[in-house]
Automatic annotation (TrEMBL):
Pfam families documented for this protein: G_glu_transpept
Organism: Paenibacillus silvae
Source organism, top-level taxon: Bacteria
Protein name as it appears in the record: Gamma-glutamyltransferase
Matching PANTHER family: GAMMA-GLUTAMYLTRANSPEPTIDASE (AFU_ORTHOLOGUE AFUA_4G13580)
InterPro entries cross-referenced by the UniProt entry: GGT-like_enzyme (IPR052896), GGT_lsub (IPR043138), GGT_ssub_C (IPR043137), Ntn_hydrolases_N (IPR029055)
Amino acid sequence: MNFDSLYQPYPSYRVPVYAKQGMVATSQPLAAQAGLDILKQGGNAIDAAIATAAALTVLEPTSNGIGGDAFALVWTEGKLHGLNASGPAPQSISIEALHAAGYTEMPKLGVVPVTVPGAPAGWAELSRRFGRLTLAQVLEPAIRYAEEGYPLAPGLARHWARAAEVYARQGDADAGRAWFETFTPGGRVPAAGELWRSPGHAATLRRIGESEARDFYEGELAERIHAFLAEHGGYLTRDDLKAFRPEWVDPISVSYRGFDVWEIPPNGQGLIALSALNLLKGFDFAEKETVISYHRQLEAMKLAFADGEKYITEERKMGISVEELLSEAYAAERRKLIVYTAQAPEAGDPRASGTVYLAAADGEGNMVSFIQSNYMGFGSGLVVPDTGISLQNRGHNFSLNPLHANALEPGKRTYHTIIPGFLTRGDVAVGPFGVMGGFMQPQGHVQVVMNTIDYHLNPQAALDSPRWQWMKDKTVLVEQGFPQHIAQALARKGHDIRTELDTSQFGRGQIIWRNPDTGVLCGGTESRTDGSIAAW
């Protein structure tokens, strides 16, 4: 398949965007523009990605925040680099301590699931190694929006109101007071088109920029985080913050029809996307809208998730290697389980055989796939008073079963849902892609990759194509625009097909591909949200 075939027309809500000097694609128009402004000021794609990510903590706080985690894939000077900026569990927490406190499973909200926030350290590390401007410079657009305010978009206002209802009903009323003071000024949720500002958020970002994030982990901000959590019985301390360092990792990949699909290694769930593609490459997919095509995708996805749920945790704790899980021999054995009818998935044994995503590129060939999140929208429902730091609840994914691979341990990183993707061909970068949205993410990655490679869709059409999402057992959600005759045929194969009207259930994606001959960038953005591409 030649590169030009990626740009064939396909019915779409939007058309792809082309540019030469630079491009930023993300879920919020003002954030995309913030990244483009940094490119025009002389920054590179890495600077633009950091600026966009920081701006998103202000402009889309329903999905991420300063107190969250981040992952990045960075293509520069002909090589792909991986950054894992996800934080571990506190040293003082344990299964025994939580059992003694009366917990039988990890809670979703409050102080217990708060893990070390990795995003600020991730920004600083990316800036230090690959940035052209200072961290203080690239955080300036985010600081300005926090100080001056911005009008809420309709989709953002809807998710904001939904979160406020959840925290009012289920959150910690005492510890969560600062969340409501920050995000419901005057005692109510901001409406669409209404200005919202956060001076505390601006001051925190300024401290992070001026100190290259050190203040967050060992300065005044660290002391504020420590004091707040200590006051409310939390486990995270100043020592946990001071000890944290983001980790440079070697990305993992599978070869898929002449392309290499890249993900961050565990503790992220990118392995699930690669496992599914490893199964699917054994089949031919000449036509997109056929029952057998969708059936095989669903069955491969279920098998990959079954393995992921059993094995994925921090890589050094897995007890099994990524290479074993992605081996051709194991894929061949698992592929035999994809039969004519829908099956309930079980894990195999290869040894026996609320997130934001952004893509950025510049005219020099640098490209970044970046994702960060607080998890479940705003996260834990907690804000450190007067700082704008909305703390994540990533610890919720830990198991309190000591025999589970992802069992809670002090200092351990949990199974992580957020995953950036990247596509190469040979030693040439094609570009970054991602689909945010909890456990939809590896499923979105598989669908975007297949739409691009198997079905030759341009980036916008690859994103606009109706999506499916496997939920559990044989239950599958499909979008309203999913072909109904195929949905009915899949039901006859034993799939429990349910049409979901809420399109936000199917993730939010961004893509930037680069033509290796001309350097022209082609981008697609999510039509299911307020997605936007800023191009130069």
